């Protein structure tokens, strides 16, 4: 019985490993599209209105359609092997402090990123732990605008959906 099960398992493995399906869509030839990341450390002060305008470095190419994400370095913890790990939180990031509610936030163009503090209290009352030497990781995610405008029939056709079994609900 053990030999029969072993034979069937080996035969099944050979059968399924030799199957071929349709060729998938062609990828970009030789193009490696990766997001770009850079980090900045800033101070939020009354002199800069608790805001910093960060210009994207010239060696990073950003298109208007790209997505930009920003992360705040919240902590550095031990990795257990004598090294450290950075702990990042995505903006906007809200903190509830003694004075009220504080938020780190950002806006951007494809040329720069503006990091700013927003609060429901006077930011001059905020301690330096939230304003000095704040490190941010700015991530540029490649994207492109979709240029396809399809109606439902075109979408179903492009997805190769058999519409003969679809019931429609009439008013």
Question: Would you kindly provide a written description of the structure presented here, covering whatever features stand out?
Answer:
It is a single chain. By secondary structure, the chain is mainly beta. It has a domain at 36-141: Immunoglobulin-like (Sandwich), CATH 2.60.40. It contains two helices and eight strands; from the N terminus they run H-E-E-E-E-E-E-E-E-H. It is elongated, with a radius of gyration of 27 Å. The mean pLDDT is 84.
Quickly describe the structure.
The chain contains two helices and eight strands. The chain is mainly β and about 170 residues long. The strands form two sheets. It has a four-stranded antiparallel beta sheet, with no helix packed on it. A four-stranded antiparallel beta sheet has the order 2-7-6-5, with no helix packed on it.
Number of helices: 2
Please report which band the strand proportion falls in: under 5%, 5-15%, 15-25%, 25-35%, 35-45% or over 45%. 35-45%
What is the end-to-end distance?
62 Å
Query: What is the architecture of the domain at 36-141 at the second tier of CATH?
Result: Sandwich
Low-confidence stretches: none
Strand order in space, largest sheet: 1-8-3-4
Question: What percent of the residues sit in helical stretches (DSSP H or I)?
Answer: 10-25%
CATH third-level topology of the domain at 36-141: Immunoglobulin-like
| Oligomer classification | single chain
Give the beta-strand count: 8
The CATH class of the domain at 36-141 is: Mainly Beta
Largest pleated sheet: 4 strands, antiparallel
How confident overall, as mean pLDDT?
A: 84
**Whole-angstrom Rg:** 27 Å
Secondary-structure-derived class: mainly beta
- What is the approximate shape? elongated
Order of helical and strand elements: HEEEEEEEEH
